[in-house]
Sequence to fold (574 residues):
Amino acid sequence: MKYLVSIGLETHVQLKTRTKMFCGCLLSTDCPPNTNVCPVCMGLPGALPLMNKEAIRKTVMSGLMLGCSINKYSRFDRKNYFYPDMVKNYQISQNTDPLCIGGGVDIGKGENIRRVRINHIHLEEDAAKINHYDRHSGIDYNRCGTPLMEIVSEPDMHSSSDAMEYLTALRQILVYAGVSDCNLEDGNMRSDVNVSVRPETSDRLGTKVEIKNMNTFKGICAALEFEIDRQTAILKSGGSVVQETRRWDGECGETFSMRTKENAHDYRYFPEPDLLPVMLDDGTIEQWRSELPELPGKKRERFKTQYSLPEYDAGVLCAQLPVAAFFEQTVQRGAAPKSVSNWIMTDLLRLLGQTGRDISDIPLTPDSFASLLKLVDSKSINTPTAKELFEELFEKGGEPEAIVKERGLGQVSDTGAIEEFAARVVAENPKVAADYVGGKAPALQYLVGQVMKLSRGKANPQMAAEIIKRKIAGE
Amino acid sequence: MDNENGTVHMDVERICELAHFDMTSEEMSEYQDQLDRILEYVEMLRQLDLDGIEPTMYGQPVANNFREDIVVPGLTHDEVIRNAPDQANGEIKVPKVVE
Fold:
């Protein structure tokens, strides 16, 4: 019998705001513990929450990027639970009237594009960070109150690779929109995974298992594969899957039961009395819509048509918004799109990878990059010189034309000089010249190399080859 | 919280469990009685004809009480730690919790 897998994800995304959701405390991951806290996020008696408008805006923008409809009336609820990561003993969340409803993320390629539907997106506050030690646990409330958006998908994914594609696309869209850094190491994006398996003949979803708080894509993938195998084996042996919450242990590579349905949480949600509702008018929503960037998929298509780039190039360039922007700015300064693309995909991305630097933080500018490419196109410098110069611009910046002039790096296209070098090289290497005449093509490369050496790397190699051929032919 | 015979009843044992309250059975039955009477009182609302009336969640017809995304200094680390039962390396120290 064949089995069908259904996966749904609840993805928590920390929003990139300066301050917390309900108070003016700074958001920062590199401050000493318990230094960015105040009476509101410490849940002191009498402290009242106040909504951060920027968090509402970023959630609505996420919803618009993901094709959700925006609820004009939305409000917050209290989710009651007792755990030291939440001092108030309740989390302010949205249960019945979230900010965004519907929408989806496309996964797959070409004819196999499928939509993973989104159920809704709601906004809540993140909990504190608990560190566990041998004999005690330690709590840092700096993270407590971080605006946290929860994106709840429908169970539309059917394999671990579907889940990876969904998360990758979702992350790219959110980073594009500038709503979150989605940095996995910093815990900016964490998912609860719901997975169930059922016989192919059944049209009802199987009993689901939830795996909580996963923060790496690799971990999610491994946990899903383990869980799919575990559940399938149970069904195959005639057993039934227990509805429960399980924990992924990355070291053992297994999931373990945490909580069964009988002990499930009972959050006793009720409307948050300390906050007023959020009412958004069309004008505000349209204003925010106008501030949205182009979606990654749309940008890829545009790059293919507008700049006549192959699918592969468009994919690489659009993977990160700053790289795409760097490409376009360089092209706008008159450089040929395909050569800009080639240089970015090979040299620039290699150097960024090697140095671990960020494209927004390098001395190379679209201006200097475009002038360098112009020097190459006009054959004013040859390719090896250009590559060297590119690395220098990447490291230190500078004006390519000025550097070329100052150091005399200009390619020698002066036939007179090359004629002279070529005549000397042919005269000094009669055997190699004879080899070439005898049909050994690589012999020519050797001779060109000698001319390059004499010109100290500045000769135009194509021109040198032509002249050498003429000399050998005795012209 | 209705039970089968139509009277209101609060599951005090369950509430204690959720609220992490430790109570003796005497205390529980005392509260049981008091809480059931409160629920009975609220039950009176059910005798009213509320067709077409939206539940009231907020006292005033006001919305959108926002703040701008601007940093406001909070408590100093010493002030925060002063209320904590114990601390270690700047973190608030609690008995080992695992969930």
In short: The mean pLDDT of chain B is 86.
